[in-house]
Amino acid sequence: MKIFISPPNSLILRDLVKEGGHEPLTMMREIKKKVTKSGLDSPPLNVTELDPEKGLKYASNEVPSGVRGRMAVIGPMIQKADAAIIVKNAKYSFGCVGCARTNELIEYLLNQRDIPLITVEYPESEEEGRKMIKKIRNFLDDLDD
User: InterPro entries given for it (predicted)?
Assistant: First the structure.
């Protein structure tokens, strides 16, 4: 199954999903596609004129351009997702989009989809971390059933 992870650039969540035998949908993989293909839109000009239009599907033209830009990448991943994992209140070092409005929009769009979804709080202790990992692993195992 394809699993959307939030924060979408979390290596920890990515590894957990892969260990669970699923395909993590991550920003890193989507950005890699953009910056490694050759052509006129290759680095450092890796944004095409179509990218802002993709973002408009998920956020109006009145929201900050950064939100639309992020959603141009994140929105299609949400549409492909068979399930999702959301870690609330994650620290920047855990993996962060860096924009509260984008994070709220991601959560809203995921909740609108009829897919399995787990939301966990970012752990504040080692014990809470173990519990969070166990919850996520159980969620991934249940997807297989």
Answer: Methan_mark_5
